[in-house]
Each structure stands twice: as structure tokens, then as C-alpha cells.
Design a protein that fits this description.
The complex is a heterotrimer of chains A (about 475), B (about 90) and C (about 475). With about 475 residues, chain A is an alpha+beta fold. Chain A is built from 15 helices and 17 strands. The radius of gyration of chain A is 30 Å and the shape is elongated. Chain C has a domain of about 260 residues: Amidase signature (AS) domain (Amidase signature (AS) enzymes, Alpha-Beta Complex), CATH 3.90.1300.10. The chains are: A alpha+beta (about 475), B alpha+beta (about 90), C alpha/beta (about 475).
């Protein structure tokens, strides 16, 4: 049996978070009651005409620049003609031969190091409405259509067939999401459909050139389903070939419940999109100064930022990768560093307690009540020895819950570390008096008994005794 | 030369259901028309740019303001079949 | 009945002199509609109550001493492919036979803002596809000059209404001659403005790169007043030009001395009915006698205009008409197994033959393997046709020609021969391909039927057309002749 390799190309659809739709004034807000965010234009009423939302073009250029694309000087909109009930005009306004951007790339980290994935093109188009089925599309007796989403601006980002495994495909999508989030043009919520993808997949015996017949998988609405469906489909195709069968070029849908891909649109006999330049829209001449302005307004991108964290802050690559995963977290980190220039200590806190609590409560960093300044102050209190690391955890939990400053909590609760030698000596004396056994053990050379005694001192001081001082004084007394 | 099979294909792409006599009629008529249009091919257009728009307009934009909607009642007022404020259609596949 | 055959500007004078109220004026026009429309069939929908309410509002303004605009209180017929909020708009098609738009076209809003009253929705060839009004799904409109003949099309209802006094002015749309040809057949003034001069927002699209809304009127002055009211930039139409509004009545001067008028010989060649050619030549001589310089010239790519026009228009139409599928509005066929079946049944039952033929022609022209030889080829030839006009307008202020090769033909005469029907558009389609303005003005009669003279101008130079047309009108009396009904 020959070894097969999988060839995957992805078409990602990203909803842009403009206020209004791409060709009309209807809101893009997610989740309204059905058919309430519509107007004559996005409902495709007879006589209604589209006018391009300028912000959509700006956002498309912004995303394209972040993906290292070349921005077209001349671009236009075309009609892609096909019939589907979620499409109000039975054509989709999209871009065909002159997309807004081409020739980009995205780097992903694979087991074999960094891999560059080519981006063929990026174009603007309108989203379709949403079909609601009873059960699945293949079993429902009828479908219901909500056009709220129709006309929401999308960019479609088409990758080269450079991906060689379902895992790489997932990594590519995750990286794409990170980069797009950095640009701020989309919230990329897969669960709300603002980031979706279709995958083209084929298999071929290792070492052969050319491509096998591909299948297109639609309806991939999570990173997990992307990877799982591709794994399933690759195996299905290999099995088919091994059994002497042929792969049919077709569209398939991912059935999450069954965990398999199913053939779709068997009744759509003919595909011929009959593109034509949209006569209702005029061409775009993209001003170079506009492009330069957009480029200048882009934030530092995650790859650059990660390298800088290693170089400038001396962070381990692992820390740098996690901290730069979202722009907001990286910004948070840098704000902390400004106030308290100990990057590794901050990184530890962010990756430790902060991330744990954020995940636990399902909060984004932007919704975190602990300001970078407050986190920095907390770390300063530890650094100065005002509170112990252990107390700091308690203080932080309270800061996270209520948003109070570290100093306030420490003061209110009297959590200041006891570093007064006389006070600690008194406690030590008492502990020694009450624990003759462990004292004997220690003296008999059992070092572990000291740990117990330190613990008792800490307990007696309600955790406030400076542990190093307590340790030192105990040894002296013993 | 446009064949009856071509007419059937084009009718399907256009989502039109034709009867047998209609297919014959349209095959004949489309042939007449396209035959008459044949002489267009004689014209040399090698170095001619296509004109999709007669006016030299470009970069016509609207600002990103959400505003005008129509009410759900208006949106659905002309709908041939609806359910729970959705447009209802027969099964898709 | 002479009263109802007055022009808008004459009625405006009567209104401001309080010789008649707007309500009375509208009632008179509706009485005329009641009297003649059974013979003519100009209207699909009449909106008497709306019009009278609008008229009473105008009367209040007059009573309060407010200044009213020149079209205030004037009843206007709107071609039924122009959306009117709350008023059924069918595009002459069964598929939209129950469609009530929730919005009005920009032109309708502008006319309403000017105080005009809407008399009703005028009949047309289904989706404006036709040259005779025989393709309407609802009724046959007849030519007021001879009710056995067609009024022309596709804006036949608008033209017939104005000619018969069943409206004072009307709006039509012109994709390949759909205003000018019926104006010519019915003996009224009809104008297709420069592409982009009038907003298409709310016009049910036939071929978007060619469609343009324009007026039908009884004389040139009314035509200028109507254009004043409806033209100008509209942010809702991307193809609407951003040009400075002008008052077109300023061009209504009885003077064509020194004006250079070209007559493209291709438009006077064989195929033009000799009687029509004779009438048109006389009209040209008239302009010459009034001081214009009239010369023959050439538009060498004219013979290619017909295929070019039909391929482009139908390609766009095949896409524009895809939305009529029975999901959101219009009729839906019953008893479908699934959605594709529903689409196919709905569209087959909802569209007439001509519309289906054009959709299929357009789909064919755009489909894989035929695109380059048909659609793309046509877009390139369109460039050559446009360049012909650019060259001609370097030398001439206007071009003159017949509007149609014949006068109004008999109902049923061409209905079975689509190609013959298409050939009757030969004089009007190039104007749409080039996007220039064109105007039809009554210039005489052949066999008792009106003949129109076509004036073609430079982009956005409607003013010069108005001056020439006004001069011609002031020195002739064809516009004062009315059909006996």
C-alpha cells in the first residue's frame, strides 16, 4: 500500500466588524430577531441598488496588508450567479478577476519548524442569509430563511494548497485568526460564524506530482471540526482509492454528530457561476497614500512581537508565544512592564494566576478588572517584601474579583508581611515551646522537621510572617 | 449552432422549466438570433478595451453608518410563505 | 375635452391664478382616464384616492399663499417598473403581480417632493422587454392615434397616457429606446437622459448599465420641467453622476442659428420606411431653415449595435431577473418537491415568453465557453460604438435621426418574430450603449400616424437638445395635434 499525502487548501471567510453592511445601511449586529436587520438592498427587493461601504474596503486592505498581500491598484466587484434561497438576489456580489489583494503569506509553526503558507488572494464579498433547518439540511422537510446576515461584509482569504495535514490546516486557521484579530477588523468568533472556512482536500501517493481530485468540505465552524473533518475525509479518500474507487469532485458537508463528511448538492446539476462585472457598482481605484496610511496604522504583528519579546525582554520563546497570542494580552503585558520592569515575573503571573482566573470565569483580558498598573503594584509589594508570594495570591484573587488596588486590600485586611524581628521571635518561642517533639526530631538531624516548624510560625502569624526571616530565626533558636 | 441540449442546459442554469414545444421554439429562435449576431465576430477587437461602464465613475462609497431598516412586517409583507417571522422554503436537497 | 390635453406649465399657470384647484384638475384627468382608458389600456393600477389627497395638500399650500413648484398638483403616470411605496408595482409581470414595495424610487420621492400627484402605474412590456407593450402580462395598450396599433414599448402605457390626456406627464424607462420609440409612435415628447443623470434607485432593473428613467410630456417645456424635478445625484445609486444641477428651462430659447447638427447616414439608410424618412428629412430641413448647419456624417459601427446591445442587455438581465424565485416576494408555484423545483416552476409560470427568451440568451452569452465570443466581445464593440459618438460630437453639437424605422405597427404584426421586433430598435439602441442623452420630438405624420425626430447629444448636454427641440417646436405645430378618442 503506497503512502499517501494530504493536500489541503483553505478558503477562510471573515466577517468584518463594520457597523453597517457592505452595500447598505442595515446593521451588522449579530443575533437580532429574524429578518429585522434588513432593508430593500440586502433583501434584494426589485429596484434596490448597492453602494459600497468605504470601511469595508479599508478593512479588507488592512487585513490584506497584515497577511503580506499586494494591494491592487484597480479592483472591481463582480456578480457570481447561482441560485440558493439564502441569497436574496440569486447572485452574490463578490470579486472575480480583480480582487482587492493577492500574493500574501502566513507562517505557521509545525513540528518541522516554521512553514510559509501562500495566500493566493483576498477579496471582498457579501455574506448570505442563514438557513434554519429542522434537524440537518439533508433530512429537514423545509427550511426557514433569516436574511439578517445577508450583506454583512466578508473577506474571503484563499490559501495555496500548501497545507499537508489536518493539523497544519488547524494551525493555519488559528494563526490566521490571531493575525486578523491583531488588525481589529473582525472579532473572528467561529461560534457566531464571523470566522468560517471551507476546505479543499485531495490525497496523492507520496512522491507524485500533480493533485488528486479534490472534495470541498463546507460547514466547518470550529477548529476541532476543521481538523476532524479533514482527518475523516483524507481517510475516506485513501480508502476509496485503495478499494479501486475514484474520488468524485463534489461539495461535502461535515456532520458533527455523525463525525463524517456527507455529499451535498447532489441535485445542483450544473455549476457555472457566469461572473460578470456588477453594472450597479463602479470600479475601485486604490489610492497608494490610502494604502500607506492603513499600513502605518497597523499594530506590530504577532510574529514580530514574539521575536521582540525574546530579544528585548529575554523571555523564553514559550512565554513570548503565549503573551503575543492576542494583541490585547500583549498590550496588557507591555503596560505591566512599563510600570514594573521585570518581564519574567510579570509573564509568570499573567500565564499563571491571571490566565487561570480568566479561563475559570470565561473573561477576556479586555474585561479583566485588574489593571496592568494594579498588577504591577502587586508585584512591587512582593518585590519589596511587603507581602509574601503566598499572600499575594490571595490578594490577587480579590483584585480580580473586585477590581481594588493591591495596596488597598493589603491595608484593609492588614496583610502586610511581618518583618519585625521582635514580633517573629516571640512567635518562634511560642511555637518551639508547643512543639517539643519536632524540636527533638530536628536536633536528631531530621531536616524535614524544620519545614513543619516554619509552617507553624506562618500559621500562627496568619501567613504574614516573612518566611525567610522566620526560617532564619528558627535555625538560630534551635 | 445552438442545440436543443444547449437550450436545456441554459434553461436549467436559468432555473426555467420548459415544455417540449417550448424547447423547440427557443432552439429555433435563439439560433435565428445568434446567427444574425454572427457578423459581430468579423469585427477585429484585438486591441479594444471592454466598456462595462459608460461613465468614468470610480470610488463611489457610503460611510459606515448603520441606520435605515425596514420593519419586519414590511420585510415579510410580500412573502409567499412564512413561519415564525422566517421566509419558508421547501427542502433544499 | 381640450382641457385635459393641456401641458403642465399651462396647468401650473391656472393653479397659481386660482382658475382651478389642484383637486378639480386631478378630477378632470381622472374623468378623462375613465372615459378613454378602456380603449387605450394605459394603466395597470390607478391611484385616484392617493392623487386627490395629494392634490388637496397642494390646494392647502396655494390657499396659504405658499409658493408651489411647477409640477405641484400635476397628475403624472409612473411606469409600473418604478417602485412606489405601498402601491402595487408589477413590472408588467405575473411574477410580481402582487408585489407592493415598502419603499419608493428616488424619482418618485422627488416628484412627490415637487408636489406632483401620482395618477397611477402605467402598463409596459414585461420587465421593460419589448417594443410594443404586447409583452405585458396584464393588458394590451393601444395607440391613441389608431387603436388597432401598438403604442410602442416598452413604456407604451406612459406614452399612450400622455398622448390620450390620461396623464399630463409620465415617467418611463429607456434601455434601448423604450421611452423614445413609444414617444415617437404616440406623438409626444420623450427623453432618455444621460446615463447617470437620473437615479435608478427603485427602478426594477432590466439591464443596469443601459437603463435610464426619463419623462414623457406634451411639449419640450414640460420635458425640461420634469427633468429638473428628477435629475441630480443620488447617494443610493453608485452610477449616479455627481454633477451640478442646472435649470433646464434656461435652455428653452427659440434659436438654433449656427448650431451644428450631424445626420449619421447609417440611420437614414435602407430599412427606414420611405415615408418616415421623408418626414424626418423635412424636419431636418426645417432646422436648417431656422439657421442650423445640418450635414451628413457617419457612425461606422452602427451595424454592430444590435447584437452588441442584445448581448449586453440580456447578460445583465439574466442576472438581474434571477431574484424572482418565489422566496421573498411575488408569486410562488404550488406543489414543489424541493427548492430547485420551486424555483423552476415559479419562474416558468411567472415569466412570459419574451422574458424567458432574453434570460436564456443572456445566460448563454455569459456561460463557460461562450463568454469571450459573446459578452466580452460585445463589451469591446461597445467601446467602438461609444468612440464613434465621441468623434461625431467633436464636430457636431447634436446628431439627428429617425427614432424608429417605421410608424406604429399593428398589434400582433411582429409578435411571433422576435428578431424582426429587435430590428425595430435599430435607431435607438446605440444611444444607450454610449450612455448619451436622446430625445424624441413629434416631427410630422406618415399615413396619419406620428413620426418622431431623434436628437442625440453629448453626455450631460441635455441643454443643447432642449434648445434645438424647443426651437423646432416653436416653429411647428405637431405638438398641438391630438388623437381623436
Amino acid at each position: 500500500m503506497p503512502q499517501y499525502e494530504t493536500v489541503i487548501g483553505l478558503e477562510a471567510h471573515v466577517e468584518l466588524k463594520t457597523r453597517a453592511k457592505i452595500f447598505c445601511d442595515s446593521t451588522t449586529e449579530f443575533g437580532g430577531a429574524p429578518n429585522t436587520h434588513v432593508c430593500p438592498v440586502c433583501l434584494g427587493l426589485p429596484g434596490a441598488l448597492p453602494v459600497v461601504n468605504k470601511k469595508v474596503v479599508e478593512y479588507a486592505i488592512r487585513a490584506a496588508l497584515a497577511l503580506n498581500c499586494k494591494i491592487a491598484e484597480f479592483s472591481k466587484f463582480d456578480r457570481k450567479n447561482y441560485y440558493y434561497p439564502d441569497m436574496p438576489k440569486n447572485y452574490q456580489i463578490s470579486q472575480y478577476d480583480l480582487p482587492i489583494a493577492k500574493h500574501g503569506c502566513l507562517e505557521i509553526d509545525t513540528a518541522n519548524g516554521v512553514k510559509k503558507i501562500g495566500i493566493t488572494r483576498l477579496h471582498m464579498e457579501e455574506d448570505t442569509g442563514k438557513l434554519v433547518h429542522q434537524g440537518t439540511i439533508t433530512t429537514t422537510p423545509f427550511s426557514l430563511v433569516d436574511y439578517n446576515r445577508a450583506g454583512v461584509p466578508l473577506i474571503e482569504i484563499v490559501s495555496e494548497p500548501d497545507l499537508r495535514s489536518p493539523e497544519e490546516a488547524r494551525q493555519y486557521m488559528e494563526k490566521l485568526r490571531t493575525v486578523i484579530l491583531y488588525t481589529g477588523v473582525s472579532d473572528c468568533k467561529m461560534e457566531e460564524g464571523s470566522l468560517r472556512c471551507d476546505a479543499n482536500i485531495s490525497v496523492r501517493p507520496v512522491g507524485t506530482g500533480g493533485f488528486g481530485t479534490k472534495a470541498e468540505i463546507k460547514n466547518l465552524n470550529s477548529f476541532k471540526s476543521l481538523q476532524r473533518s479533514l482527518a475523516f475525509e483524507a481517510e475516506r479518500q485513501i480508502k476509496t482509492l485503495e478499494a479501486g474507487g475514484k474520488i468524485v469532485q463534489e461539495t461535502r458537508t461535515w456532520d458533527e454528530g455523525k463525525g463524517e463528511t456527507l455529499s451535498l448538492r447532489s441535485k445542483e446539476y450544473a455549476h457555472d457561476y457566469r461572473y460578470l462585472p456588477d453594472p450597479d457598482l463602479v470600479p475601485l481605484l486604490i489610492d497608494r497614500q490610502w494604502v500607506a496610511d492603513i499600513r502605518n496604522s497597523l499594530p506590530e504583528m504577532p510574529d514580530q512581537r514574539r521575536l521582540r519579546y525574546v530579544k528585548e525582554y529575554g523571555l523564553p520563546a514559550y512565554d513570548a508565544a503565549i503573551l503575543t497570542n492576542t494583541k490585547e494580552l500583549a498590550d496588557y503585558f507591555e503596560e505591566c512592564v512599563k510600570a514594573y520592569p521585570h518581564p519574567k515575573a510579570i509573564s509568570n503571573w499573567i500565564m499563571g494566576d491571571l490566565n487561570r482566573l480568566l479561563n475559570l470565569h470565561g473573561i477576556e483580558i479586555t474585561g479583566c478588572k485588574v489593571t496592568p498598573q494594579n498588577l504591577a503594584s502587586l508585584l512591587m509589594l512582593i518585590g519589596r517584601g511587603t507581602i509574601s508570594g503566598k499572600i499575594a495570591k490571595t490578594v490577587f484573587a480579590e483584585m480580580f474579583a473586585g477590581g481594588k488596588a493591591a495596596e488597598t486590600i493589603v491595608k484593609e485586611k492588614g496583610l502586610t508581611q511581618i518583618s519585625d524581628k521582635r514580633v517573629i521571635v516571640a512567635i518562634v518561642d511560642e511555637v518551639l515551646a508547643r512543639n517539643p517533639g519536632p524540636v527533638e526530631d530536628y536536633k536528631a538531624g531530621r531536616e524535614r522537621a524544620l519545614g513543619f516548624l516554619v509552617g507553624q510560625v506562618m500559621k500562627a502569624s496568619q501567613g504574614k510572617a516573612n518566611p525567610e526571616l522566620a526560617n532564619k530565626l528558627l535555625r538560630e533558636k534551635l | 449552432m445552438i442545440t436543443k441540449k444547449d437550450v436545456e442546459h441554459v434553461a436549467l442554469l436559468s432555473r426555467l422549466e420548459l415544455t417540449g414545444p417550448e424547447k423547440d421554439m427557443y432552439t429555433r429562435q435563439l439560433n435565428d438570433i445568434l446567427e444574425h449576431f454572427q457578423f459581430l465576430a468579423r469585427l477585429d477587437t484585438e486591441n479594444v478595451q471592454p466598456t462595462a461602464h459608460v461613465l468614468p465613475l470610480q470610488n463611489v462609497f457610503r460611510e459606515d453608518w448603520a441606520g435605515l431598516h425596514i420593519s419586519r412586517e414590511d420585510a415579510l409583507a410580500n412573502c409567499p410563505d412564512q413561519e415564525e417571522n422566517y421566509f419558508k422554503v421547501p427542502k433544499i436537497v | 375635452m381640450q382641457f385635459t390635453l393641456r401641458t403642465a406649465h399651462e396647468m401650473h399657470d391656472q393653479l397659481i391664478k386660482k382658475e382651478i384647484s389642484a383637486e378639480e384638475l386631478n378630477k378632470t384627468v381622472f374623468a378623462r382616464i375613465d372615459a378613454v382608458d378602456d380603449q387605450i389600456g394605459a394603466y395597470i393600477t390607478r391611484t385616484r384616492e392617493n392623487a386627490l389627497a395629494q392634490a388637496r395638500a397642494v390646494d392647502r399650500q396655494i390657499r396659504n399663499g405658499e409658493k408651489i413648484s411647477p409640477l405641484s398638483g400635476i397628475p403624472i403616470a409612473i411606469k409600473d417598473n418604478i417602485c412606489t411605496d405601498g402601491i402595487r408595482t408589477t413590472a408588467g409581470s405575473k411574477i410580481l403581480s402582487n408585489f407592493i414595495p415598502p419603499y419608493s424610487a428616488t424619482v418618485v420621492k422627488r416628484l412627490e417632493a415637487a408636489g406632483s400627484t401620482i395618477a397611477g402605474k402605467a402598463n409596459l412590456d414585461e420587465f421593460a422587454m419589448g417594443s410594443s407593450n404586447e409583452n405585458s402580462a396584464f393588458l394590451v395598450t393601444r395607440n391613441p392615434w389608431d387603436t388597432s396599433r401598438v403604442p410602442g414599448g416598452s413604456s407604451g402605457g406612459s406614452a399612450a397616457a400622455v398622448a390620450a390626456g390620461a396623464a399630463v406627464c409620465a415617467l418611463g424607462s429607456d434601455t434601448g429606446g423604450s421611452i423614445r420609440q413609444p414617444a415617437s409612435f404616440c406623438g409626444v415628447v420623450g427623453m432618455k437622459p444621460t446615463y447617470g443623470a437620473v437615479s435608478r434607485y427603485g427602478l426594477i432593473a432590466y439591464a443596469s448599465s443601459l437603463d435610464q428613467i426619463g419623462p414623457f410630456t406634451r411639449d419640450v417645456t414640460d420635458c425640461a420641467l420634469m427633468l429638473n424635478a428628477i435629475c441630480g445625484h443620488d447617494p443610493l445609486d453608485s452610477t449616479s453622476a455627481k454633477y451640478q444641477a442646472v435649470d433646464y428651462t434656461g435652455f428653452l430659447k427659440d434659436d438654433v442659428r449656427g448650431m451644428k447638427l450631424g445626420v449619421p447616414e447609417e440611420y437614414m439608410a435602407e430599412g427606414i420606411d420611405p415615408a418616415v424618412r421623408g418626414v424626418v428629412l423635412k424636419a431636418m430641413e426645417k432646422l436648417e431653415s431656422l439657421g442650423a448647419v445640418v450635414e451628413y456624417t457617419t457612425l461606422p459601427h452602427t451595424e454592430y449595435a444590435l447584437p452588441t446591445y442584445y448581448l449586453i442587455a440580456q447578460a445583465e438581465a439574466s442576472s438581474n431577473l434571477a431574484r424572482y424565485d418565489g422566496v421573498r416576494y411575488g408569486i410562488r408555484a404550488k406543489g414543489s418537491e424541493d427548492v430547485i423545483d420551486m424555483f423552476m416552476k415559479t419562474r416558468s409560470q411567472g415569466f412570459g415568453h419574451e422574458v424567458k427568451r432574453r434570460i436564456m440568451l443572456g445566460t448563454y452569452a455569459l456561460s463557460t465557453g461562450y463568454y469571450d465570443a459573446h459578452y466580452l466581445k460585445a463589451l469591446k464593440v461597445r467601446t467602438l460604438i461609444k468612440e464613434d459618438f465621441d468623434r461625431a460630437f467633436k464636430k457636431y453639437d447634436l446628431l439627428l435621426s429617425p427614432v424608429s424605422p417605421t410608424t406604429a405597427f399593428r398589434i400582433g404584426e411582429k409578435i411571433d418574430n422576435p428578431l424582426q421586433m429587435y430590428l425595430s430598435d435599430i435607431c435607438t439602441i446605440s444611444v444607450n450603449l454610449a450612455g448619451i442623452p436622446g430625445l424624441s420630438i413629434p416631427c410630422g405624420f406618415a399615413g396619419g400616424l406620428p413620426v418622431g425626430l431623434q436628437l442625440m447629444g453629448r453626455h450631460f448636454d441635455e441643454g443643447t437638445m432642449f434648445r434645438a427641440a424647443y426651437t423646432f417646436e416653436q416653429n411647428t405645430d405637431y405638438h398641438k395635434q391630438f388623437p381623436e378618442l
